[in-house]
Design a protein that fits this description.
Structural class: alpha/beta
CATH superfamily of the largest domain: Aldolase class I
Strand content: 5-15%
CATH architecture of the largest domain: Alpha-Beta Barrel
Bound molecules: flavin mononucleotide
Helix content: 40-55%
Largest sheet: 9 strands, parallel
Strand order of the largest sheet: 5-2-1-11-10-9-8-7-6
Number of helices: 15
Length: 313
Amino acid sequence: MTESTTILMAAPMQGYTEAVWRNAHAEVYGCGEYVEYFSPFMRVEKGDARMRDMRDALSPLNSNHKLTPQIIFRDAEEFRLLLNAATEAGHMAVDLNLGCPFPPQCKRGRGAAMVANCKVMEEVAEIINTTSGIQFSVKMRPGLASPDEWRTTMPIINGMRLSHLTIHPRTARQQYGGEVLMDIFTDMLEASCHPVVFNGDISSPADIDRLLSAYPTLRGVMAGRGLLGRPSLFAEWHEGGQWTDSEKLDAVMKMHRLIFGHYCETLCGDTQILSKIKPFWEYLEPAIGRKRWKAIHKATGLQSYSKAISDIS
Ligand SMILES: Cc1cc2nc3c(=O)[nH]c(=O)nc-3n(C[C@H](O)[C@H](O)[C@H](O)COP(=O)(O)O)c2cc1C
């Protein structure tokens, strides 16, 4: 293991890794110091940074972890607007989304559609290279439809002043399933002038070790669904030993208490609270078992929800 130099990153996940989740995660797993968290992408809505994204960027819950807001843009104007919004919210690092496969974003030229857009990327590179005091990074897929699209913009990305480049080696067309294109990842790693972070299907400490031995130059690893399903993933790897199932479950329940408590204090009514808390369990079925997981999903009010939760611990 090259623990001291490997950076562990919590992936941006719309609807999951907002400030409340990040805060509870950093608190329960004590990893605010050694994990870097990325916000779900900020976007433009009605000509301004979306209010919900600004609330996340400004949240006092961000105080216990290192946060980089991520932005998604279709042109240099949106890029500038969101960069200003992120820095006005007090952030000194910004991550660029060149990977979102969501059709409503890609159709408008954002996310993975930006991978082959040399014109906008050149304009963005110019802004990045003339903006001092802000740390930039890029999170990308190899392409929208073809795994070779990255070849057109890699020279531009190489010319940007970046801290690192995160690569999820699936095309947008593959969404989040199917084969992770490791050969393409190897080519991208070799072509990148920037330190590279691997992202995709990491779900155990052994997965991290395997990646680091296969790619000794890797700067770090980023986990999304694997971290939601096993929130102790980075803590276990950092400590160098796997936790027992009961240790893992205890910590998950602690994290749940914090998040559920926050929603009960700040939201109104069963429907609103349930719609925010249920995603917490989405990837945790293996940790709590199918029966309990289904009971949570079926809960229609706080009473049936609390009963489903009390059956876990
Ligand atoms: C529900 C969902 C929401 C996501 N939201 C974002 C996002 O806002 N920004 C981003 O760059 N990637 C987003 N992703 C992609 C993840 O960050 C990550 O790249 C992808 O899930 C692959 O990594 P994993 O296998 O570790 O989950 C999202 C993925 C999912 C499934």
